């Protein structure tokens, strides 16, 4: 199984794609979140939008879902097969409310989300090519539904989240890598995880971490390298690959 970053940027990133990864299995794939910046990243990897077979949505902020409408239309025109869209049961109605203004009306009459995607509503977990992915409820913005994704024994992917220190320490012994969001800025943002918080974790946990969802400043390779050297932390970037076996 190979995980490749399509983008590692936050909502206000313009020089890099918004945060999303492509997980490739021997015969299928899964994309976690679907920002519009994925189109360019996938093309750069020699892939087309209709190559995407499974999508999971962590939450409904624009930078994580603003490519879904185009993905649905594109696959409808260029593919016989609809991508599977894995949506947590608590998120489904809200996702359709968000997307319906662009997807409901068509020259063939009213359409639903299921006309564009093979919608897979789940409660706790879903499976792709025999691998279980468990949704972990996270605290991102109070009142907002958001989930990370646990793929044991390989990785945990936080999505956008404040730091749940107890959980991260607890699952660190169950997975090889922890992909965690961190804005890498000095000021504390209430809905995200700060560098200071990451640095407060035990060193053995930090060593397993790869940081993502950060501002454009660290697309500058000198800035990124300098921060990695200073902290000993790893920072993801577009096209960074991780292999799991
Ligand atoms: Zn975000
Ligand atoms: Zn968010």
UniProtKB/TrEMBL annotation:
One term of GO molecular function: 3'-tRNA processing endoribonuclease activity
Catalytic activity: 3',5'-cyclic UMP + H2O = UMP + H(+); 3',5'-cyclic CMP + H2O = CMP + H(+)
Domain Metallo-beta-lactamase: from-to ranges: 17-213
Keyword tags: Hydrolase, Zinc
Ranges in coiled-coil conformation: none
SUPFAM superfamilies: Metallo-hydrolase/oxidoreductase
PANTHER family cross-referenced by the UniProt entry: RIBONUCLEASE Z, ZINC PHOSPHODIESTERASE ELAC PROTEIN 1
Entry function: Counteracts the endogenous Pycsar antiviral defense system. Phosphodiesterase that enables metal-dependent hydrolysis of host cyclic nucleotide Pycsar defense signals such as cCMP and cUMP.
Identification of the protein by name: MBL fold metallo-hydrolase
Gene source species: Paenibacillus glucanolyticus
